[in-house]
Amino acid sequence: MDIDSIRAFFMWCTILNVALLLFSSLMCICAGDWAYRIHSKWFSISRETFNVAIYSFLALYKILVIVFNLIPYIALSILG
Questions:
Q1: Which residue range(s) make up the domain with 65?
Q2: For the residues of 41-59, what is the DSSP string, one character each?
Q3: pLDDT (tens digit, 9 = 90+) per residue, 6-39?
């Protein structure tokens, strides 16, 4: 594999993961009550705890996308 194909791989990984992150964020904004109702049926959780858990998940996911997808793509773009 050459640098261009690896760079293209990281580019598409970044695009797909950012799209999933945006979709998840929009779902939390637009359908947060619906998601809470479903999860509260499965787990005994308060609304405040649910909000913190979702916010923490999205923050962690964003950090992981940046560290493991975006940064390698930028590094390979600088090299290539």
A1: 3-79
A2: HHS---HHHHHHHHHHHHH
A3: 999 999 999 999 999 999 999 999 999 999 999 9
Decide: helix, strand or coil at residue 2: coil
Number of domains, the chain: 1
Distance in angstroms (rounded) separating the CA atoms of residues 50 and 24: 14
Q: Which residues contact 79 (CB under 8 A, 6 or more apart)?
A: 3
**How far is residue 31's CA from residue 12's CA, in Å, rounded to a whole number?**
27
C-beta of residue 58 within 8 angstroms of C-beta of residue 24:
yes
> How many alpha carbons fall within 13 Å on the CB side of residue 20?
12
Query: Which two structure tokens, joined as six digits, stand for 63?
Result: 């950090």
pTM: 0.89
Contact 28, 72 (CB under 8 A): no
